[in-house]
Amino acid sequence: KAFADFEKRHGRFVICDFVCPTKSTRENFDADITIWMDTITEGRFEDTNKIFQVPTNVTFHITEWNDKNHINLAHDIKEKYV
After folding, report:
1. Cα 27 from chain centroid?
2. Which of 14, 21, 35, 37 is 20 to 30 Å from 75 by CA-CA measure?
3. What are the tens digits of pLDDT across the range 24-59?
4. Would you give the DSSP letter of residue 32?
5. Minimal CA–CA distance to 70: which of 42, 39, 32, 31?
């Protein structure tokens, strides 16, 4: 998070991609935009599956990965936030 904050303070856009399974870890990261990639029923790590909490406050909720949704998502983010 410190590196992302540093880059943001210097006027750069930052994209962080990681599994954030609990509400508290999501709150600690304090993202400006949250994208929930809800495209699988279970991850490959059982310990993460056990603690996973469904996000209730997301900016974008992706339920299907296809050849176009990343383009649409980038467009929506640019229109609303840039």
Report:
1. 12
2. 21
3. 999 988 899 999 999 999 999 999 999 999 999 999
4. S
5. 39
